[in-house]
Amino acid sequence: MGRIILLEEDTINKIAAGEVIERPASVVKELVENSIDAEATSVTIDIKDAGKSLISIIDNGTGIMRDDLPHVFERHATSKIKDIDDLMTVRTLGFRGEAMSSIASVANIELESQSEKDILGSRLVIKSGKIIENREISTSIGTSIKVKNLFYNTPARFKFLKSDKTELNYISDTVEKIAFSNTHVAIKYIVNDDIIFHTPGNGDLLSVIQCIFGTKAAKMMLPVSYSNELLSINGYISKPEFSKGNSTYMIFSINKRIIKNNMLKEAVKTAYKSFLMNNRFPVSILNIDIEPDKIDVNVHPAKAEVKFSDDRSIFNLVYYSLNQTLTSNETVYTESFKD
Ligand code: ADP
Ligand code: MG
């Protein structure tokens, strides 16, 4: 007899979950992105014990149709793409159909959802990987998901979690960045029963900056706005007199997806070169919109990175638009000094 065996479904799911669901913040990211993909205009995120005991996400999106319910927690089950060609045009944050199955394999879940297409909504409870409740309920249009006892059945993963403070920082960082890149969604963020912030959801990025970084910081920001046939860049960058000791406040989104990208960071740093000392970094929040066929969003397990088909021109345009903002600010600054 040979030594190769086919892994069981449950084992496959747990292994896959390791890629997508690294820590509580990954659960928050995946669930809020699902709410945004479902066109929610309001999302409430409620965290207890740094997400270890509870992550609750409530949205007013399209809801899940009762007919779709059996597939939500299956692997590679998605309503967002049909074939690989769709990746050229996809504008949703999800498309792999992995998050819900991954989360269900490492946590207990209570899901309530109502689609406007159904007369009644659904309530589904998954415990120890099994559906222990599935019934019709009457609720409002949208979806509510409670994730409890995360990593209860993957002790290795649980053991590698950092302190509550650190894990909560990861969550807050994720929620803040999603709020910056989705200004049309009112995001309410609650931690251990305290409301941390509640964005207005009116599309105004400066209000979101004010909600999250405070009024003082918001007053130190300059607007950036640029568009051509390739892309649009919208956001705020800090006045040179307001800088930071590290580069963690350089935040980027591409088509509403929060991403890490060294080339974009370099473009921002280069624009500030003559405005800041070497060891100082700006605060910059830039939302870039680009035709989906100019980027590849399928290059990272958690989709935290994208590849541009033309790095050079993106670099130049970001540099150019920031440089314009900074130079015209300087003109105003020196002129106001004159009189
Ligand atoms: P993906 O987002 O890649 O499609 P997920 O595993 O995250 O995969 O979700 C599976 C499917 O469940 C989604 O395609 C969507 O149809 C449905 N879904 C999940 N969360 C929500 C939600 N908050 N509102 C509406 N539908 C949802
Ligand atoms: Mg998803």
TrEMBL record:
Species this protein is from: Lutispora saccharofermentans
UniProt entry tagged with the keyword Transit peptide: no
Keywords for this protein: DNA damage, DNA repair, Endonuclease, Hydrolase, Nuclease
Function field: This protein is involved in the repair of mismatches in DNA. It is required for dam-dependent methyl-directed DNA mismatch repair. May act as a 'molecular matchmaker', a protein that promotes the formation of a stable complex between two or more DNA-binding proteins in an ATP-dependent manner without itself being part of a final effector complex.
Protein's recorded name: DNA mismatch repair protein MutL
Keyword Cell wall biogenesis/degradation in annotation: no
GO molecular function: endonuclease activity
Protein family (similarity comment): Belongs to the DNA mismatch repair MutL/HexB family.
Source lineage: Bacteria, Bacillati, Bacillota, Clostridia, Lutisporales
